[in-house]
Design a protein that fits this description.
This protein is mainly alpha-helical. The chain is 79% helix and 0% strand. It has 6 helices and no strands.
Length: 102
């Protein structure tokens, strides 16, 4: 998974753990594909200020994922659900195992 998609996925899972400004700026950057300069202009802050907020948010998101691994498990469950729909009966056992870990 590319870095942009990875951070976007982490943002979906852990976004509520960020402060409002960090979440908003990070969503603009990763989900709305705005540049740092565009975000800075829209928000009335410097490009460096935007970058700093996004970098802090990225660090927080990665730290939370390293501790909790919810995003990893969620993505794995999605893969297994697709396998199960395709007839892989072993996928059901793996799904149950992941859910029991939670």
């Amino acid at each position: 998974m590319g870095k942009n998609l990875y951070i976007s996925a982490l943002l979906d899972v852990y976004g509520e753990c960020l402060n409002d400004k960090q979440r908003e700026l990070t969503e603009y950057y990763y989900n709305d594909d705005l540049s740092l300069a565009e975000i800075a202009e829209n928000e009335g802050i410097t490009r460096q200020g935007v970058r700093d907020q996004i970098k802090r948010a990225e660090q927080r998101l990665v730290s939370l994922e390293e501790k909790c691994r919810y995003c990893e498990r969620f993505l794995r469950l999605k893969e297994l659900a697709d396998d199960f729909k395709s007839g892989d009966k072993n996928a059901a056992e793996q799904i149950v195992s992941i859910i029991e870990e939670l």
